[in-house]
Amino acid sequence: MPRQKSRPDSEILESALALMHERGPEGLTFASLAERTGLSAATLVQRFGSKPAMVKAALTQSWDRLLEATEAAIATVDKSPKGAVELLVALSADYGAIDSYADGLLILREDLRDPDLRARGKAWGDRLSAALGECLAGADHPNPTLGRLMASHWQGTLLWWSFDPTVDVSTFVEESLSSFLGVLRQGE
């Protein structure tokens, strides 16, 4: 395949992330990314400097995209408990099948190893919790603690689904979160 002269970093980083999902973080090398993108390994080294820097750039871009998707989903849901469920179901849609979810957990390991990426995860979690808190308690009296509890239940739901992925992830999430809200309403 002829070498391409130029590609934007965003495209290259998407390819890097795809390789990490396919082969694990260790499977991302300058050589594998060069083969995938049509750029030379030397060009990639020149752009990113080192493999850790390239991994971090790809994961930073991934956090940016997740935040964009989260903000877009927040903008489309009602500020109601039903809207909170719809928000988390929308964010679950990208998990896909079990292999994709499992690969994502391997990538998450890389986020947890880097303080800057952990900070991105915390900021995203705070934003998501605040939005869920508005949905659950109303925009006038948002309750980010309640939002964090729902986000935590959502993450647990995804993990439980992964052990028995016989139902579509979105269906499983919607049913579990609706049950969670039902229990909360009983305690009021």
Automatic annotation (TrEMBL):
Give this protein's Gene Ontology molecular function annotations.
Answer: DNA binding
Q: Where is the HTH tetR-type domain?
A: 6-66
Query: Which keywords accompany this UniProt record?
Result: DNA-binding, Transcription, Transcription regulation
Out of the domains of life, which is the source?
Bacteria
Residue ranges for the DNA-binding region feature of this UniProt entry = 29-48
Q: Protein name, please?
A: TetR/AcrR family transcriptional regulator
In its UniProt entry, the species of origin is given as Pelagibacterium lacus
